[in-house]
C-alpha cells in the first residue's frame, strides 16, 4: 500500500459564496444553514482515490473582495485551489477572476491545479451566472469546472475529488477516462 500523500488545498472566493459550507459538507457530511463569516479554518480529512490515500489539509479562508490584499500564506505550500463563486452573484463571479489573477501573480506561475466552482446551484430562481459562463472562464484558465450545492453531499465530495485529480495531473499522474475515480 503506497504511503498517504499529504496535500494542502486552499478554498478561496468572495464572501458568503459557500466556502465553509462546501468544506464542512465534505469533511463532516452536513449542511450548515447559519452564516458565520470565516476568519480562517483548517480541516483535515483522509480520503482514498483509486487506491491512493490522500491526507488532505483544507484551508477554508476568509472571504475576499477585489480590494483585499492576497495573503502570502495562500500561496505557500498549497498544492491546489478551489475557487468558489455563487451562481446567484455576479459580484462573486467578478471577484473570483480577480482572485485568480492575484493568485497567479503571487505563486509566479501561469497555471496551478485549480477547480472553479459555481456554488448554490440549488437556488434556481436566483441564478445570475449560466453554467456556460463558468465553464468558459475555467477553460481560459486551463482549470476544471463544476457547479455544486453545499446542500448535497455528493457535489461537495465531487469538488474535492476534482481538485485531487487536478493535482495528480499536475504531478504527471493522469487517469485514463475509463478508470472511474472513487472517493472512499
Ligand atoms: N441554498 C444554498 N445556500 C448555501 C449554499 N452554500 C452556502 N449557503 C449558505 O450561504 C451562506 C454563506 O455560506 P458560508 O459557507 O458561510 O460562506 P463562506 O463563503 O464561507 O463565507 P465567508 O466566511 O464570509 O467567506 C450560509 O447561510 C449558507 O447556509 C448552497 O449551496 N445553497
Overall form: globular
What portion of residues belong to β-strands?
25-35%
DSSP helix count?
A: 4
Q: Could you list the spans in which at least 5 consecutive residues all have pLDDT below 50?
A: none
Order of helices and strands: EHEEEHEHEH
**Number of beta strands:** 6
Distance between the termini: 15 Å
The computed structural class is alpha/beta
Sheet with the most strands, sense and barrel status = 6 strands, mixed
Query: Level of helix content?
Result: 25-40%
Radius of gyration: 15 Å
Organism: Erpetoichthys calabaricus (Rope fish)
Protein name: GTP-binding protein Rheb
Membrane topology: Lipid-anchor
Family: Belongs to the small GTPase superfamily. Rheb family.
What does this structure look like?
By secondary structure, the chain is an alpha/beta fold. The chain contains 4 helices and 6 strands; from the N terminus they run βαβββαβαβα. A 6-stranded mixed beta sheet has the order 2-3-1-4-5-6, with helices on both faces. Helix 3 (131-141) links the parallel strand 5 (114-119) and strand 6. The protein is globular, with a radius of gyration of 15 Å. It starts with a strand and ends in a 14-residue tail after the last helix. The relative contact order is 0.20. Guanosine-5'-triphosphate (GTP) is lined by residues 13, 15-21, 32-33, 35, 37-38, 62-63, 119-120, 122-123, 149-151.
